[in-house]
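To fix ideas, we give here one paired sequence and structure record:
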Amino acid sequence: MPFPKFTIRGFKAPREAVIASLGTLERKTLEEVWRRKETNVRDVVEALNDSFAYTTIMTTLDRLYKKGYLDRRKDGRAFVYKPLMSREELHVGLAGDVIVSLIDGATKNVEPVLACIVDAVSDRDRELLDELERLVKEKKASLDNLK
């Protein structure tokens, strides 16, 4: 069953909304931490061509840590930061949150939500639809093994 496509004015995809909720410097800093895998304030300052003060980057990394994007450990007098999740894990987590909220919101009939997911997958590529079918079968088998 085809569903109408429409745009909600001002609506952003969840990935865009999360990234947009970060400031420009937070986004640049997070990108640099993802690129380096593990870093300290000095390395980020240098990577950003000394465009920002050491204390500004230190505050930005601390904010990203407090928001749950980074982990840190003490190394001498400084902190070493690393991402708590990869860029891809962030996107997958956001997609999962959206799908769960759609299913939870469809309290009376979840079929239209599932049909939209199948339509979106099949619109992209027939092989993706086959992959979705394989994943469903695999999940059913693992649930059967739990019984």
In short: The chain has a mean pLDDT of 83. The CA atoms of residues 10 and 17 lie 11 Å apart. Residues 87-146 form one domain.
